[in-house]
Design goal:
Blueprint: E1 2-5, E2 17-20, H1 28-44, E3 48-54, H2 57-60, H3 71-80, E4 85-90, H4 93-96, H5 100-110, E5 115-119, H6 132-142, E6 145-149, E7 153-154, E8 157-158, H7 161-169, H8 173-180, E9 184-191, H9 196-199, E10 205-208, E11 220-228, E12 231-240, E13 251-256, E14 267-277, H10 285-304
Parallel strand pairs: 1-4, 2-3, 2-5, 3-4, 5-6
Antiparallel strand pairs: 7-8, 9-10, 9-14, 10-13, 11-12, 11-14, 12-13
Helix pairs in contact: 5-6, 7-8
């Protein structure tokens, strides 16, 4: 996938099929837009281009948002989804002051799309004042067509980034998976912990996340899949404060089944499959160890089902 930063000058893209948005999560609703783009690109012998923003606009405007994807994850996923060009617009407070019509002029002049595909609730321009009608009003002038993709509903639930965030913050990993179309991933660097897990027979890989805005799901113990060095392992992941040892610092630590390697300072990715219990404070390490044994049995039952 070709990554282009900025649209301050005309791009040599031969009139692509484009879509525009922040696309946090790249969930099934976003994927429906991309599939429509790819179908139109085949029909019109054109290329596909996703126009997005970095950083997330809400972060620049001082609004709190926890991201489902880091920018690196978004790039990798878009490439996997078969998008040919990713155009990252550096989002600043100055850029946010562009009106909807000014934004369309910038897109039309510098990208020259042959078709713009828009999600059902897309807003853009200062204060998100622009909508699909603004694109329709400029379509004839700039010689592009418009197509809108309807809202997607899965299992009776509207698919949106906000809903996925809520599900993860409630610990509903399996429901989030259904809306994302894949399991929620957390990637980080393995760092040294206090070795308590190794002491009781459940050594863990402790993850440090580089992006403080990455969404961390609800605390608790999760059945998880672990990706390391192009291999997949089963594991159980604890997200929490480790109250039994009075650590009281949020950690993400994973016991990888059948794994005994020193991987400090290497990258590790975990996928959360299902939350199996809340985090608890136990009376002793022996009681914690007994609980972890039960957790492992339950985890293997869940992962054994896929």
């Amino acid at each position: 996938m070709n990554i282009i930063t900025g649209i301050t000058a005309p791009l040599n893209l031969k009139r692509p099929i484009i879509t525009i948005g922040t696309f946090d999560g790249l969930h099934l609703g976003h994927q429906a837009i991309f599939e429509t783009m790819k179908q139109e690109a085949v029909a019109q012998n054109a290329e596909t281009a996703v126009v997005t923003f970095n950083p997330h606009p809400r972060l620049v405007l001082g609004q709190q948002v926890y991201l489902l994807n880091t920018q690196a994850e978004k790039r990798a996923l878009l490439a996997e989804m078969g998008i040919q060009h990713m155009i990252e617009i550096p989002f600043t407070r100055e850029f946010a002051r562009h009106s909807a019509n000014e934004f369309i002029e910038m897109i039309a002049h510098n990208i020259q799309p042959r078709m713009v595909i828009i999600g059902f609730d897309h807003g853009f321009g200062q204060g998100r004042s622009g909508d699909i009608n603004h694109f329709y009003q400029s379509a004839q002038k700039h010689d592009y067509s418009i197509k809108q993709v309807d809202e997607l509903v899965v299992d009776g639930q509207k698919v949106s980034s906000s809903v996925v965030r809520w599900l993860l913050q409630e610990g509903q990993a399996m429901q989030a998976t259904r809306l994302l179309g894949r399991r929620y991933e957390i990637t980080g660097q393995v760092v040294r912990g206090n070795q308590i897990g190794r002491l009781i027979g459940y050594p863990t890989a402790n993850l440090y996340l580089n992006d403080p805005n990455k969404l961390i799901p609800a605390m608790g113990v999760y059945a998880s899949k672990v990706y390391y060095n192009n291999r997949i392992y089963n594991g159980m992941t604890n997200i929490g404060m480790r109250p039994t040892i009075s650590a009281y610092k949020l950690t993400i630590e994973t016991n990888i089944f059948g794994f005994d390697k020193d991987i400090y300072y290497e990258s590790l990715t975990i996928q959360l499959v299902k939350r199996i219990r809340n985090e608890k404070k136990f009376g002793s390490l022996d009681v914690l160890k007994a609980q972890l044994s039960e957790d492992k049995v339950k985890t293997m039952e869940i992962l054994g089902r896929g």
